Protein backbone atom coordinates (compact mmCIF):
# COMPACT_ATOMS: atom_id res chain seq x y z
CA UNK A 1 0.00 0.00 0.00
CA UNK A 2 2.79 2.47 0.82
CA UNK A 3 4.31 1.92 -2.65
CA UNK A 4 1.10 3.17 -4.25
CA UNK A 5 1.11 6.26 -2.04
CA UNK A 6 4.72 7.01 -2.93
CA UNK A 7 3.91 6.56 -6.63
CA UNK A 8 0.87 8.84 -6.36
CA UNK A 9 2.92 11.46 -4.49
CA UNK A 10 5.62 11.36 -7.17
CA UNK A 11 3.01 11.76 -9.92
CA UNK A 12 1.37 14.71 -8.16
CA UNK A 13 4.75 16.41 -7.64
CA UNK A 14 5.74 15.79 -11.29
CA UNK A 15 2.45 17.15 -12.64
CA UNK A 16 2.64 20.21 -10.39
CA UNK A 17 6.25 20.90 -11.43
CA UNK A 18 5.36 20.47 -15.10
CA UNK A 19 2.40 22.83 -14.85
CA UNK A 20 4.51 25.38 -12.99
CA UNK A 21 7.30 25.22 -15.63
CA UNK A 22 4.72 25.66 -18.42
CA UNK A 23 3.26 28.69 -16.66
CA UNK A 24 6.73 30.22 -16.20
CA UNK A 25 7.63 29.77 -19.88
CA UNK A 26 4.36 30.98 -21.38
CA UNK A 27 2.91 33.53 -18.97
CA UNK A 28 5.03 34.55 -15.99
CA UNK A 29 7.84 36.51 -17.60
CA UNK A 30 6.03 38.13 -20.54
CA UNK A 31 4.41 41.50 -20.12
CA UNK A 32 2.45 43.57 -22.58
CA UNK A 33 4.48 46.67 -23.45
CA UNK A 34 2.40 49.71 -22.53
CA UNK A 35 4.37 52.14 -24.74
CA UNK A 36 5.96 50.12 -27.55
CA UNK A 37 9.09 51.38 -29.28
CA UNK A 38 8.47 53.00 -32.66
CA UNK A 39 9.06 50.59 -35.54
CA UNK A 40 12.41 51.40 -37.15
CA UNK A 41 14.25 50.00 -40.17
CA UNK A 42 17.93 50.40 -41.01
CA UNK A 43 18.43 52.88 -43.85
CA UNK A 44 20.46 51.78 -46.88
CA UNK A 45 21.84 55.33 -47.21
CA UNK A 46 22.90 56.02 -43.62
CA UNK A 47 23.13 52.59 -42.00
CA UNK A 48 21.16 53.94 -39.06
CA UNK A 49 17.66 52.93 -37.90
CA UNK A 50 14.86 55.27 -39.00
CA UNK A 51 11.30 55.23 -37.70
CA UNK A 52 8.67 54.22 -40.25
CA UNK A 53 4.93 54.81 -40.32
CA UNK A 54 3.43 52.20 -38.01
CA UNK A 55 -0.07 52.15 -36.54
CA UNK A 56 -1.79 49.89 -34.01
CA UNK A 57 1.46 48.66 -32.46
CA UNK A 58 1.03 45.94 -29.83
CA UNK A 59 4.06 44.36 -28.21
CA UNK A 60 5.18 41.95 -25.51
CA UNK A 61 8.58 41.60 -23.88
CA UNK A 62 10.34 39.95 -20.96
CA UNK A 63 13.38 40.88 -18.93
CA UNK A 64 14.44 37.22 -18.79
CA UNK A 65 15.83 37.13 -22.35
CA UNK A 66 16.80 39.61 -25.07
CA UNK A 67 14.99 37.54 -27.72
CA UNK A 68 11.51 37.54 -26.17
CA UNK A 69 10.38 40.81 -27.79
CA UNK A 70 7.47 40.46 -30.25
CA UNK A 71 5.31 43.15 -31.84
CA UNK A 72 2.55 43.50 -34.41
CA UNK A 73 1.64 46.65 -36.35
CA UNK A 74 0.19 48.00 -39.57
CA UNK A 75 1.86 50.26 -42.13
CA UNK A 76 0.71 51.91 -45.38
CA UNK A 77 4.26 51.72 -46.83
CA UNK A 78 4.68 49.60 -49.98
CA UNK A 79 7.25 46.89 -50.56
CA UNK A 80 8.68 48.92 -53.46
CA UNK A 81 9.37 51.93 -51.25
CA UNK A 82 10.68 49.83 -48.38
CA UNK A 83 13.14 47.80 -50.50
CA UNK A 84 14.60 50.93 -52.08
CA UNK A 85 15.09 52.65 -48.74
CA UNK A 86 15.85 50.00 -46.09
CA UNK A 87 18.19 47.03 -45.61
CA UNK A 88 16.76 43.56 -46.08
CA UNK A 89 17.53 41.06 -43.32
CA UNK A 90 19.35 37.89 -44.32
CA UNK A 91 18.42 34.68 -42.48
CA UNK A 92 15.35 36.07 -40.75
CA UNK A 93 13.44 33.35 -38.90
CA UNK A 94 10.51 34.44 -36.74
CA UNK A 95 10.55 33.09 -33.21
CA UNK A 96 7.39 31.60 -31.74
CA UNK A 97 5.32 33.84 -29.48
CA UNK A 98 3.09 32.60 -26.66
CA UNK A 99 -0.34 31.44 -27.86
CA UNK A 100 -2.08 34.22 -25.92
CA UNK A 101 -0.30 36.86 -28.06
CA UNK A 102 -2.49 35.87 -30.98
CA UNK A 103 -1.55 38.60 -33.49
CA UNK A 104 1.91 37.02 -33.96
CA UNK A 105 1.95 33.70 -35.86
CA UNK A 106 5.57 32.68 -36.44
CA UNK A 107 4.65 29.85 -38.80
CA UNK A 108 2.55 32.11 -41.05
CA UNK A 109 5.27 34.78 -41.05
CA UNK A 110 7.99 32.23 -41.85
CA UNK A 111 6.02 30.77 -44.75
CA UNK A 112 5.29 34.26 -46.10
CA UNK A 113 9.00 35.12 -45.96
CA UNK A 114 9.80 31.99 -47.98
CA UNK A 115 7.18 32.71 -50.64
CA UNK A 116 7.96 36.43 -50.87
CA UNK A 117 4.54 37.52 -49.64
CA UNK A 118 6.41 39.20 -46.77
CA UNK A 119 9.86 40.80 -46.70
CA UNK A 120 12.21 40.90 -43.71
CA UNK A 121 14.15 44.06 -42.92
CA UNK A 122 16.89 44.80 -40.44
CA UNK A 123 15.30 46.94 -37.75
CA UNK A 124 18.43 47.49 -35.70
CA UNK A 125 21.68 45.57 -35.57
CA UNK A 126 22.97 44.69 -32.09
CA UNK A 127 20.02 46.17 -30.22
CA UNK A 128 21.67 44.20 -27.43
CA UNK A 129 25.02 42.43 -27.88
CA UNK A 130 24.57 39.70 -30.48
CA UNK A 131 20.85 40.38 -30.97
CA UNK A 132 19.27 42.04 -34.02
CA UNK A 133 15.75 43.42 -34.25
CA UNK A 134 14.02 42.06 -37.36
CA UNK A 135 10.88 43.52 -38.98
CA UNK A 136 8.76 41.55 -41.46
CA UNK A 137 6.17 43.36 -43.55
CA UNK A 138 3.47 41.74 -45.68
CA UNK A 139 2.30 43.23 -48.98
CA UNK A 140 -1.02 44.14 -47.34
CA UNK A 141 0.73 46.25 -44.67
CA UNK A 142 0.70 43.85 -41.74
CA UNK A 143 4.00 44.01 -39.90
CA UNK A 144 5.75 41.95 -37.25
CA UNK A 145 8.84 42.53 -35.13
CA UNK A 146 11.05 40.10 -33.22
CA UNK A 147 14.61 39.88 -31.99
CA UNK A 148 16.95 37.07 -32.97
CA UNK A 149 20.57 36.17 -32.41
CA UNK A 150 23.00 37.28 -35.10
CA UNK A 151 26.25 35.44 -35.94
CA UNK A 152 28.15 37.14 -33.09
CA UNK A 153 25.38 36.32 -30.64
CA UNK A 154 25.26 32.66 -31.65
CA UNK A 155 29.02 32.41 -31.21
CA UNK A 156 29.01 34.27 -27.89
CA UNK A 157 26.25 32.12 -26.40
CA UNK A 158 27.60 28.75 -27.58
CA UNK A 159 31.11 29.54 -26.32
CA UNK A 160 32.82 29.80 -29.74
CA UNK A 161 35.49 32.49 -30.21
CA UNK A 162 33.60 35.51 -31.56
CA UNK A 163 36.45 36.89 -33.68
CA UNK A 164 37.33 40.33 -35.05
CA UNK A 165 34.14 40.75 -37.12
CA UNK A 166 32.08 41.08 -33.93
CA UNK A 167 31.83 44.31 -31.93
CA UNK A 168 33.54 44.53 -28.56
CA UNK A 169 31.34 43.29 -25.78
CA UNK A 170 30.67 45.84 -23.07
CA UNK A 171 31.94 44.90 -19.61
CA UNK A 172 28.93 45.00 -17.32
CA UNK A 173 30.92 44.25 -14.18
CA UNK A 174 29.24 40.86 -13.67
Word description of this protein:
A hairpin with a 3-residue loop joins strand 7 and strand 8 (142-149). With 174 residues, the chain is an alpha+beta fold. The strands form two sheets. A six-stranded antiparallel sheet has the order 1-4-5-8-7-6. A two-stranded antiparallel ribbon has the order 2-3. It contains four helices and eight strands; from the N terminus they run αβββββααβββα. It is globular. It starts with a helix and ends in a 16-residue tail after the last helix. The protein has helices at residues 2-28, 79-85, 106-115, 151-158; strands at 31-32, 40-42, 49-51, 55-61, 70-74, 118-128, 131-138, 142-149. The chain crosses the membrane at residues 6-24.
List the main descriptive attributes of the protein structure presented here.
4 helices, DUF6446, 2 domains, 174 residues, two-stranded antiparallel sheet, transmembrane helix, alpha+beta, membrane, 30% helix, six-stranded antiparallel sheet
Total strand segments: 8
Order of helices and strands: HEEEEEHHEEEH
Strand content: 25-35%
Quaternary structure type:
single chain
The helix content, as a percent range, equals 25-40%
- Number of self-contained structural domains: 2
Q: How are the strands ordered across the major sheet?
A: 1-4-5-8-7-6
Low-confidence stretches: none
Termini separation (Å)? Answer: 52 Å
Radius of gyration, taken over Cα atoms and rounded to an integer in Å: 20 Å
Q: Identify the overall geometry.
A: globular
Can you count the helices? Answer: 4
**Main beta sheet:** 6 strands, antiparallel
Class from helix and strand fractions: alpha+beta
What's the average pLDDT? 88
Organism: Litoreibacter ponti
Protein name: Histidine kinase
Pfam families: DUF6446
Keywords: Membrane, Transmembrane, Transmembrane helix
